[in-house]
Structure formats: C-alpha cells, structure tokens
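#struct-pred
JK: can someone run the complex with zinc ion? inputs below
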Amino acid sequence: MDRNAWWEGSVGLCAELIRHDTQIGGPGERKATEYAAEILSDAGLSPVIVESEPGRASSVTRVPGADPSLDPLLIHMHLDVVPAQAHEWSVPPLSGEVRDGYVWGRGAVDMKNMAAGVLTVVSDRMRTGRLPRRPLVLAFLADEENAGVLGAEWLVRERPDLLEGCHTAIGEGGGWSIPVGDGRRIYPVHTAEKGWAALQVKASGVPRHASRLTDANPVRILGEAIGRLTTDRFPVHLTPEVEVLLRRICEVGGVDFDPEHPEAACALAGFEQANLLSGLRNSAHATRLSAGYQSNVIPGEATAELDARYLPGRWEEFLEELGAALGDEVEVSELARTVGLTPTSTSGESRIWEASRAALRSEDGVAEVSPFMLSGGTDATHLQRLGIECFGFNPILLPPDLDFWSLFHGIDERVPVESLHFSTRVLDRFFDLY
Ligand SMILES: [Zn+2]
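RT: done, structure tokens with the ligand placed:
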C-alpha cells in the first residue's frame, strides 16, 4: 500500500468487521474479538481475551507510549451490534458492501467504524515505530448493546486490573460534525449521558365476564395511563452540559441564546435538532404490552414496559414527573437501570479539549469543539466507577445532507468512505497531541 495513504486500510477493515455477524447474543462476538486481537498480535502487541460467559468475549491490549511515565489513555469500543432485518434494507446488512462512496452494513456507524480506525492507526504506528505520545489501552467490550451487563459492567467488577492506571477514556457517542452558521462546524465531545431505565407499569383488577358493564378493566386503565406519556408531560430542564453546546451553536451561528427558549437554539443544528431536543427533557416510551388470554374475559392484570431516559443525577425528579403523568391507578416497578454519566469537576479544563480541537483542525480548518450531553448511553456509565473520566470522541466529518443519527440502529446504516479516512487521520493526530 502507498505509505501516504495508510489510512485507507480502515475501509476494508470496517467492511470485514461488518461481515463478522456480531448481532447481540449470537455466536459471532468471540470470533470478531479474536479477529481484532489477531490484527493487534500481528502488530507485535499482546491482547488479553476474557469471557464473562462462553462466547461473550472482551479484549484488552496495551500499546506502549513514547513517554511511558504518562497515564495511559483508555479507548473503549464494542463489536456487538443490534439486529438487522434484511428485508428492510437496500443491501444485505452484513455485506460490508462499498458502494456510492459509503461502507454499508450493520455496525458501520455503531461502532465498527471507530474500531476499524483505531486498529488501522495502531497497526500503522507499530509497523513504522511511531509510538503515540502516551500509552494506550484498547478495550473491545462485549454486550454494549445490552447495557454492557456481560461486557463493561462485568469487566469493571471482575477484572479492573486490566484497566489499571487509566484515568481518562475516549469512546463512541461524540465527535461528529454539526454544520452551523456560514460554513462553520462544531464537533460535540460528550462529557455526560442520560441515564436509562426499563420500568414496568401494571394495572390490576378482578377477572370477570366481558359482558358486564364496568370501567374497572386493567387494559383500559393501563391504556389511558400510558396514553398520557406524551413529550409535553415532561418539562424542559436546561442542564449545564446541554446549555454549553447550545450557547456555542448560537455564538458560532451569530444568534443570541435565550435560556427561556432553548428549543430555538436546537433548531439551528439541522439534523442534530432532534438529538439536542432529547437532551432537554426526561422521557418515557411504552415499548411492550401484555394483557389477557381470551377475548370474552376481562383480565385481572395488564402490564406495559417503558424505556425511560432521565437527565443524569435527576432520577427522583423524573419519577415525580412520571407519576404525575401516569396517575395513581397503576403501579410502577424498576426492571433495570443505569445511572448515566455525570461530568466530573475537571471536565472542560483537561488537555483533552486542546488536543481534540487541534487534531480536528489539522483536517478541518473550521472545526470547533464543545462539551455536550448524549441522550443515549454508552459503556462510560460503567467505566466511571473506576474513577475514569470518559469523553465521547469518535471524530467524523459528515456530509451536510446526511441524517447521521437516523442511521444508529436504523436501516441502511452506512458510513461515508471519506469520513472513515478523516476519522482515522484525526485519531492518529490526536494520539500525538494528547
Ligand atoms: Zn454503540
């Protein structure tokens, strides 16, 4: 390969990772982890593979730094993906096809792209003796798409020794370009994440003949309760992590920021608008329903499962809002929950801001960075328990007409080839600067 275009290897690698079927819970996760570990072994490194359960494999690899006295930087990634229904796609979702300037397939943006970029950078650096400024710890963590129970959560509990010495991490969830104003771009680096919970809502009654006149029907009661879970039931809360990005967008866009109407600032962010709006409110969506066993019997119980997303550190406040919306005829119980990610006091001062901005500017002269809160969740929620400060930084320059967020867990997931080259080069630069 032409030495000047070493980063182009990230495209073939991304496609190959997509062809490894790592749909969550399937048999492919171990094979994909071994494949990535083999690349690192070939580069002269010594990956350690561990399993929380048979086949549920994670790997951790230490990369030497030019200055071994510096703390290592953890880079956390996952190779598992959410399932894809082939009939809904324009290409076979596990094909890794390269077409029309994109690499297509499940995992192309979440997050085999970053995995391919990091593997490409580290392999080239080891081959050419260009050590990163500080040591790196590369972690490919299992089960991220199931809240990391058998991956990051397990590793933090059972094998924290593998991450010893790490105080800072980068991972997915931030770093893509938002076009703002007249040809400027902001790359949000995430420092906070909403918390997630799976909740059960239950309405109870007495089973009876469906010919009786009654309003005491658990199905009706449940339906009315979850029917009230509309967006406007959850008021706007402007948290500092969201405000800082909205102010930056307004500043770059040349508009005044109005804290009374933060939604107006979200509208300046194009496709990013929906994502930013999610950062202003708690939410709860009914995603599963269960009731009844015969059409002429009123059942004794009806249940719904909710996917809840709450602003970090505000669980009690969320429960009050939820209770007010559901009313007092139903019972709520918690099935599972993560705490999200709350920024530490050092966020915003750290060297990471200078390094990420300079690395981006080396490839995109108008790049600005800003902290922000991710409305989804990542393995950072587990890693913070080890005192590791986590940042979402997967640098991607996007074409302005691409609705990037719709591709996450969506159909026709794909990443522009040029964006993959860009992120590989920016990560390479970042490892010299941070
Ligand atoms: Zn992901």
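RT: quick notes.
The chain has a mean pLDDT of 94.
The first strand starts at residue 48 and ends at 53.
JK: thanks, will look after standup
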